[in-house]
């Protein structure tokens, strides 16, 4: 799960992103239930501390965006790029080993509180699969902000999106 405040959240027994106030990238190898999505599927998830992953809908009500990405049995390593800058969270994928990023999800108005950690976990459920994390590279960007923007950042206590209505599957 990426990121989680003060602790690493394990997905060893269940998908726990959204059981806490955190955000995550979820890579689904196969549908957990009948679904309208094409799998494998990569998505951005958001939790507010009260919602849990709904297996009956493959997490649709906590998904901010995502895409189909052929991450299983690939000839090349699969790379995911998560970029968070100026309240914008963007997810890109490279499944062809060409270092060419394809847009997967783009969320504006995303607010992430300071003090969060990055981590990774994996669970396969009934499906036998291999998950190798070769590297995680984190960079802090220095961006000039107004006093108003700095105050807004201090007011954020849990991850959130300014306009949750834009996410049709979100339930409150």
UniProtKB/TrEMBL annotation:
GO cellular component: a single term: COPII-coated ER to Golgi transport vesicle
InterPro entries, alphabetized: ConA-like_dom_sf, Intracellular_Lectin-GPT, Lectin_leg
Pfam families linked to this entry: Lectin_leg-like (PF03388)
Subcellular localization(s) per the UniProt record: Membrane
Domain L-type lectin-like: 1-141
Keywords from the named record: Membrane, Signal, Transmembrane, Transmembrane helix
Entry GO MF terms: D-mannose binding
SUPFAM superfamilies named among the record's database cross-references: Concanavalin A-like lectins/glucanases
Main location: membrane
Membrane topology: Single-pass type I membrane protein
Keyword Transmembrane helix set for record: yes
One of the GO BP terms on file: endoplasmic reticulum to Golgi vesicle-mediated transport
Superkingdom as given in the UniProt entry: Eukaryota
Protein name listed in UniProt: VIP36-like protein
């Amino acid at each position: 799960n990426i990121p989680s405040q003060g602790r690493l959240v394990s997905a060893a027994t269940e998908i726990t992103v959204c059981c806490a106030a955190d955000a995550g990238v979820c890579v689904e190898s196969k549908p957990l239930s009948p679904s309208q999505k094409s799998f494998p599927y990569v998505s951005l998830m958001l939790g507010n501390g009260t919602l849990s992953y709904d297996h009956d809908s493959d997490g649709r009500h906590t998904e901010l965006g995502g895409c189909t990405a052929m991450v299983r049995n690939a000839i090349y390593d699969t790379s995911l790029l998560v970029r968070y800058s100026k309240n914008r969270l963007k997810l890109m994928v490279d499944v062809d080993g060409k270092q060419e990023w394809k847009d997967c999800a783009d969320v504006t108005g995303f607010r992430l509180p300071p003090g969060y950690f990055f981590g990774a976990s994996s669970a396969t459920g009934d499906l036998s699969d291999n998950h190798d994390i070769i590297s995680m590279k984190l960079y802090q960007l220095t961006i000039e902000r107004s006093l108003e923007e700095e105050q807004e950042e201090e007011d954020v206590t849990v991850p959130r999106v300014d306009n949750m209505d834009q996410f049709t599957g979100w339930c409150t």
